[in-house]
């Protein structure tokens, strides 16, 4: 705080010592002054250096904006068709390739799968053996001879044994068989052996059922050998429902996969005994008749344990429907669908559907691999071989391969997965292992890997994944995670922002990692890797450090001279800013949305600290060098330091995207302190270059308007220069309140001194140019010079806003209290106020040059008006003056901005008023026509300069000298009586404004008797009368009279008795006056009360006077003018003592020597004034 106060006090003393910019420049200019005017032309080299200097500074100021544009252009340049860079990985991640022997065994497995394929193929599958074998030959790089050997071996091997897995899930909308409106459904299902084509036709005419009545079974004994039951299973009974849910699973061995049939019955159970227990021996039955007879016996035994009426046929189980599914109609991947229930005959009534899941698979395979490897391992090898082959033949964007294989490959893989009875979860895990492993050597689309992860998560069942499969899945997750972390570390090279394709891949990769760490499978098989975000954070940090080290190695900022080192540091900081910009715009969004890691905060804090360490060391060397007496800051060094400051400011500005808690502990928080002394010297360089630029601009200026504007090139150059310097300060954004105050004070002082010097140089240029120029061209140049000064003045009027004075005041108030704020306000506004005064003074000098040029002509035209004979009308008398003004107005209105036009017109108006006043003063007491003519002249000038609202405002024009002149002319045109009447009107007006005076007051009562036309005046008493006697008292009496006398020629003045030795006399005297309505209706008709001090030995002394207009109590309707007028309350009149000679009316009446009334009136007032002077 002490340092801040000392700093502030020193600056305030400096400002207070320089109260006026003009006063500082009044001594003769020295050669060291940067803005000293010199008639010799400025060397071209200096002016060019100044312009180039500001161009370079402007480029530095636009660095951040250019960086944003470059970042956008960088992203736009990377089209999707441009392949992303290679994703380099460690060799440890690359899996081993299969040997030839293993490929031969795997090829045998594939051929065996093709030969033994079953199921109805879909449109996606290939049905031709030749096409499938042709594909396998290419995929395994197998020769024809080798293929024939392996195919023959497979054909001679034992055919695959198949089984059928049946899942009875649920049924819906069954028939209600019980009295309660429900049924108690259960299912019976089994495999029926294959039938001949003729028997199949007969089957279409009748429906098979596991339960038929005995007589029907006996009639069909002919099919005894055709329909034996292979295996019969039964589900649980679901009581009282029409929409049962069983979710029971059964497996049946299949003898003839091409001809066997799956049959399912649904029955309504009506007994209390479990049907499932009663049907355990059904599998021992062979032949339909034996099964039917045995089922009848079971049914009877079940019912015998039921109700008493169990012997009734009504308690028999009711048929609800059946389903017959030939195995050769089952698709390759099986059935998972709803089947409509069928009746057992045309007379049966059934309804509803049953949901079944059917899948055929091999229970035994005769291949070498199947005897030593698990089905999972074999399928994984097969898929890996096919994936490698398929990817190698992708021509367009192989890095973006979505994993889709050709139909032959898909056919082989599908049949193998079905035949080996791989569950959807096992298949998903195998696909993930293969594709993620393959991705480590040959890039694939990350959306494929993400899709595979989602499939695993959707099918996940921790019970189904144990042993080797669990270990393998864990390893695949680990390897993929390490691979991605390696890529994250090198993301700036692998996933650059210049490639849209690379960024898209990076986003998908991060989504995959983010999805993986939240998967149930990942948490189950990798329980110790529950903090993957920490690994990601570590990879980002390490990658950021390595990238910055490579940046330092590229630019080598430690080599070369100090200035060269700083320039290299600028390049390092700029590259860091660009990287941080990419982190904030692109990478951070990807990281946060995918893995909830704040990439920007991690990388920014790391880079910010490393940059701060390097720059602080370099700036210590700079400050040490500048502190040496022989060292000075060169312009190029200053530009480099300024550019380094701006680059650091840009880098620091990114902290606004950090969480609040992190933004407070940054290494660059106070980096401006490293530049304090350098910036001071840098601003001096800016000031010197500005002065050179302004001086050169004035010298080159031809005082011709630029384009459509009314100012010249120098004004444009000056305001442009000021704008650039202002922008320098705004971009500096100095955070320290004391330092900001010093800098703002210095900048304001520089601006003001440069502006005033510019206006002085322009004025001197005009003064030199007026010699030998005609009136019009000189006026035009003078107008342009005025506009130049006004443009600069208006521009600097925005300094409080442009330099954020309020922000500096608030900062100083926080650090130094209210006193600091007030001192800042006074200091800065004092500078601006003095500058404004100086510029306005220069503007007045220019306007004076213009009016001085006009003065001879104006005098001649005013004299012409004054001397014009009465025979000439007013228009003719005024016409020469107005024509001259009109010509002048055309020139100045075309060349002046509105503010300057107003100033010039105001000066012309004031000059004309003074000249007319002088003419009137020289001609008092002349004919009325003289004053009428000048009155006409004034009104003509008033409308001329008003310009129908475009010029001076009437309100402004009718003030000051105009009021004096108007009053002078008006009164000079009045008769003596009118002047006297005006005198009393002014007295009445003045009386109304009196509230309290030191001359006392008088209390009176007035009332008017209208029928009698009589005015009664009661003078009651007075108070605080002026003491005019030596004893400190007075002998007052009051003279009351009607005025003006020419309105009341018959009325005589009346007086009260003298009250001796008192200042508070009580009179209580009545006086009567005759007043007619014609008399009291005049506004100037009044009663005057003159208080005098009676003297025995000399003339009475004047103590004070008051007036009361008759309209207050004589006008009809007034309380004083009614019958009750006597009861009205008295009123107080305050006394006054004004000198009559001070009024213009007195001077005019006094000038009318031949007028008796005027002289008499003046004589009476002079006597009163003489009495006052004697006192």
From TrEMBL:
<feature type="compositionally biased region" description="Low complexity">
    <location>
        <begin position="9"/>
        <end position="21"/>
    </location>
</feature>
<keyword id="KW-0963">Cytoplasm</keyword>
<dbReference type="InterPro" id="IPR014772">
    <property type="entry name" value="Munc13_dom-2"/>
</dbReference>
<comment type="similarity">
    <text>Belongs to the unc-13 family.</text>
</comment>
<feature type="domain" description="MHD1">
    <location>
        <begin position="642"/>
        <end position="762"/>
    </location>
</feature>
<dbReference type="GO" id="GO:0000149">
    <property type="term" value="F:SNARE binding"/>
</dbReference>
<dbReference type="GO" id="GO:0099503">
    <property type="term" value="C:secretory vesicle"/>
</dbReference>
<dbReference type="InterPro" id="IPR035892">
    <property type="entry name" value="C2_domain_sf"/>
</dbReference>
<dbReference type="Pfam" id="PF06292">
    <property type="entry name" value="MUN"/>
</dbReference>
<feature type="domain" description="C2">
    <location>
        <begin position="998"/>
        <end position="1123"/>
    </location>
</feature>
<dbReference type="GO" id="GO:0001956">
    <property type="term" value="P:positive regulation of neurotransmitter secretion"/>
</dbReference>
<feature type="region of interest" description="Disordered">
    <location>
        <begin position="1"/>
        <end position="43"/>
    </location>
</feature>
<feature type="domain" description="C2">
    <location>
        <begin position="143"/>
        <end position="302"/>
    </location>
</feature>
<keyword id="KW-0967">Endosome</keyword>
<dbReference type="InterPro" id="IPR010439">
    <property type="entry name" value="MUN_dom"/>
</dbReference>
<dbReference type="InterPro" id="IPR052095">
    <property type="entry name" value="UNC-13_domain"/>
</dbReference>
<dbReference type="GO" id="GO:0005886">
    <property type="term" value="C:plasma membrane"/>
</dbReference>
<dbReference type="InterPro" id="IPR000008">
    <property type="entry name" value="C2_dom"/>
</dbReference>
<dbReference type="GO" id="GO:0098793">
    <property type="term" value="C:presynapse"/>
</dbReference>
<dbReference type="GO" id="GO:1905413">
    <property type="term" value="P:regulation of dense core granule exocytosis"/>
</dbReference>
<dbReference type="GO" id="GO:0031902">
    <property type="term" value="C:late endosome membrane"/>
</dbReference>
<dbReference type="GO" id="GO:0055038">
    <property type="term" value="C:recycling endosome membrane"/>
</dbReference>
<dbReference type="GO" id="GO:0032588">
    <property type="term" value="C:trans-Golgi network membrane"/>
</dbReference>
<keyword id="KW-0268">Exocytosis</keyword>
<feature type="domain" description="MHD2">
    <location>
        <begin position="875"/>
        <end position="983"/>
    </location>
</feature>
<protein>
    <recommendedName>
        <fullName>BAI1-associated protein 3</fullName>
    </recommendedName>
</protein>
<dbReference type="GO" id="GO:0006887">
    <property type="term" value="P:exocytosis"/>
</dbReference>
<dbReference type="InterPro" id="IPR014770">
    <property type="entry name" value="Munc13_1"/>
</dbReference>
<dbReference type="Pfam" id="PF00168">
    <property type="entry name" value="C2"/>
</dbReference>
């Amino acid at each position: 705080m002490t340092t801040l106060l000392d700093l502030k006090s020193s600056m305030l003393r400096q400002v207070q010592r320089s109260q006026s910019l003009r006063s500082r420049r009044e001594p003769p200019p020295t050669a060291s002054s940067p803005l000293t005017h010199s008639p010799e032309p400025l060397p071209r080299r200096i002016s060019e250096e100044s312009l180039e200097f500001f161009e370079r500074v402007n480029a530095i100021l636009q660095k951040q904006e250019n960086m944003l544009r470059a970042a956008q252009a960088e992203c736009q340049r990377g089209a999707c068709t441009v392949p992303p860079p290679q994703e380099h990985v460690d060799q440890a991640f690359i899996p081993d390739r299969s040997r030839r022997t293993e490929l031969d065994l795997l090829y045998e497995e594939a051929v065996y799968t093709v030969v033994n394929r079953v199921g109805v193929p879909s449109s996606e599958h290939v049905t031709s053996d030749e096409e499938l074998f042709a594909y396998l030959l290419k995929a395994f790089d197998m020769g024809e001879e080798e293929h024939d050997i392996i195919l023959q071996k497979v054909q001679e091997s034992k055919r695959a044994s198949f089984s059928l897995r049946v899942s009875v899930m649920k049924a819906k909308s069954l028939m209600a068989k019980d009295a309660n409106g429900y049924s108690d459904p259960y299912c019976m299902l089994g495999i029926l052996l294959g039938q001949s084509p003729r028997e199949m036709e007969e089957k279409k005419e009748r429906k098979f059922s596991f339960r038929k009545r005995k007589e029907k079974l006996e009639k069909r004994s002919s099919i005894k050998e055709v329909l034996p039951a292979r295996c019969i299973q039964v589900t649980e009974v679901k009581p009282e429902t029409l929409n049962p849910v069983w979710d029971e699973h059964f497996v049946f061995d299949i003898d003839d996969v091409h001809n066997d049939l799956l049959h399912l019955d649904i029955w309504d159970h009506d007994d209390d005994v479990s049907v499932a227990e009663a049907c355990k021996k059904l599998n021992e039955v062979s032949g339909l008749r034996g099964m039917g007879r045995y089922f009848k016996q079971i049914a009877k035994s079940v019912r015998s344990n039921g109700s008493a009426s169990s012997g009734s046929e009504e308690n028999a189980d009711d048929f609800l429907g059946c389903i017959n599914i030939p195995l050769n109609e089952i698709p390759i991947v099986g059935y998972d669908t709803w089947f409509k229930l069928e009746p057992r005959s045309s007379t049966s009534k059934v309804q509803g559907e049953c949901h079944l899941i059917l899948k055929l698979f091999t229970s035994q395979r005769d291949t070498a691999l199947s005897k030593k490897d698990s089905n999972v391992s074999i399928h994984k090898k097969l898929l890996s071989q096919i994936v490698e082959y398929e990817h190698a033949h992708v021509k367009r964007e192989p890095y973006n391969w979505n994993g889709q294989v050709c139909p032959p490959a898909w056919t082989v893989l599908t049949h193998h997965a079905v035949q080996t009875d791989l569950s959807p979860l096992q298949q998903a895990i195998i696909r993930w292992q293969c594709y993620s492993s393959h991705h480590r050597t040959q890039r694939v689309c990350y959306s494929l890997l993400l899709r595979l992860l989602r499939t695993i998560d959707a099918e996940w069942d921790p019970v189904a994944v144990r042993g080797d499969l669990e270990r393998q899945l864990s390893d695949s997750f680990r390897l993929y995670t390490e691979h991605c972390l390696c890529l994250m570390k090198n993301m700036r090279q692998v996933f650059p922002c210049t490639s849209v394709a690379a960024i898209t891949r990076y986003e998908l990769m991060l989504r995959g990692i983010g999805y993986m760490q939240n998967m149930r499978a990942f948490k189950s098989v990798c329980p110790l890797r529950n903090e993957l975000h920490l690994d990601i954070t570590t990879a980002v940090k390490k990658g950021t450090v390595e990238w910055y080290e490579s940046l330092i190695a590229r630019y080598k900022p430690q080599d070369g001279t100090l200035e060269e080192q700083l320039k290299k540091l600028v390049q390092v900081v700029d590259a860091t800013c660009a990287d941080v910009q990419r982190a904030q715009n692109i990478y951070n969004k990807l990281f946060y949305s995918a893995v909830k890691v704040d990439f920007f905060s991690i990388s920014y804090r790391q880079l910010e600290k490393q940059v701060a360490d390097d720059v602080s060391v370099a700036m210590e060397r700079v400050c040490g060098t500048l502190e040496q007496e022989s060292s000075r800051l060169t312009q190029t060094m200053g530009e480099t330091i300024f550019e380094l400051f701006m680059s650091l400011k840009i880098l620091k500005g990114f902290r606004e995207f950090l969480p609040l808690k992190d933004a407070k502990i940054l290494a660059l928080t106070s980096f401006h302190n490293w530049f304090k002394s350098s910036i001071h010297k840098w601003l001096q360089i800016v000031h010197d270059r500005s002065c050179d630029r302004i001086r050169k601009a004035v010298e080159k200026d031809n005082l011709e308007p630029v384009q459509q504007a009314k100012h010249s090139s120098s004004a444009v150059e000056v305001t442009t220069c000021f704008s650039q310097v202002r922008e320098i300060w705004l971009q500096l954004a100095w955070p320290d309140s004391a330092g900001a105050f010093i800098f703002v004070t210095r900048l304001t002082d520089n601006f003001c001194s440069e502006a005033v010097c510019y206006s002085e140089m322009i004025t001197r240029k005009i003064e030199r140019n007026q010699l030998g120029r005609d009136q019009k061209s000189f006026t035009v140049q003078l107008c342009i010079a005025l506009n130049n000064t006004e443009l600069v003045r208006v521009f600097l009027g925005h300094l409080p806003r442009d330099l954020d004075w309020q922000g500096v005041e608030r900062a100083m108030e926080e650090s130094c209290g209210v006193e600091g704020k007030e001192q800042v306000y006074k200091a800065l506004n004092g500078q601006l106020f003095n500058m404004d005064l100086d510029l306005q003074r220069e503007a007045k000098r220019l306007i004076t040059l213009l009016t001085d040029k006009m003065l001879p002509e104006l005098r001649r035209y005013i004299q012409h008006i004054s001397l014009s004979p009465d025979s000439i009308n007013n228009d003719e008398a005024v016409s020469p003056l107005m024509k001259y003004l009109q010509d002048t107005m055309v020139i100045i209105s075309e060349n002046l901005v509105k503010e300057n036009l107003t100033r010039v017109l105001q000066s012309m108006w004031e000059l004309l008023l003074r000249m007319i006043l002088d003419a009137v003063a020289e001609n008092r007491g002349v004919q009325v026509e003289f004053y009428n003519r000048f009155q006409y002249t004034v009104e003509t000038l008033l409308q001329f300069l008003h310009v129908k609202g475009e010029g001076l405002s009437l309100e402004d024009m009718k003030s000051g000298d105009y009021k004096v002149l108007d009053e002078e002319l008006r009164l000079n045109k009045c008769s003596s009586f009118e002047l006297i009447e005006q005198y009393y009107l002014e007295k009445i007006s003045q009386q109304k404004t009196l509230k309290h005076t030191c001359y006392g007051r008088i209390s009176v009562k007035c009332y008017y008797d209208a029928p009698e036309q009589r005015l009664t005046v009661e003078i009651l008493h007075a108070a605080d009368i002026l003491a005019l006697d030596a004893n400190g008292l007075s002998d007052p009496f009051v003279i009351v009279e009607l005025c003006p006398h020419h309105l009341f020629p018959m009325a005589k003045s009346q007086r009260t008795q003298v009250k001796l030795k008192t200042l508070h006399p009580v009179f209580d005297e009545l006086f009567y006056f005759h007043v007619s309505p014609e008399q009291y209706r005049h506004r100037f008709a009044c009663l005057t009360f003159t208080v005098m001090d009676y003297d025995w030995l000399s003339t009475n002394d004047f103590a004070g006077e008051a007036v009361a207009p008759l309209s207050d109590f004589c006008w009809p309707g007034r309380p004083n003018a009614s019958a009750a007028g006597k009861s009205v309350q008295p009123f107080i009149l305050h006394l006054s003592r004004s000198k009559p000679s001070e009024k213009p009316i007195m001077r005019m009446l006094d000038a009318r020597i031949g007028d008796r009334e005027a002289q008499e009136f003046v004589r009476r007032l002079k006597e009163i004034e003489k009495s006052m002077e004697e006192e």
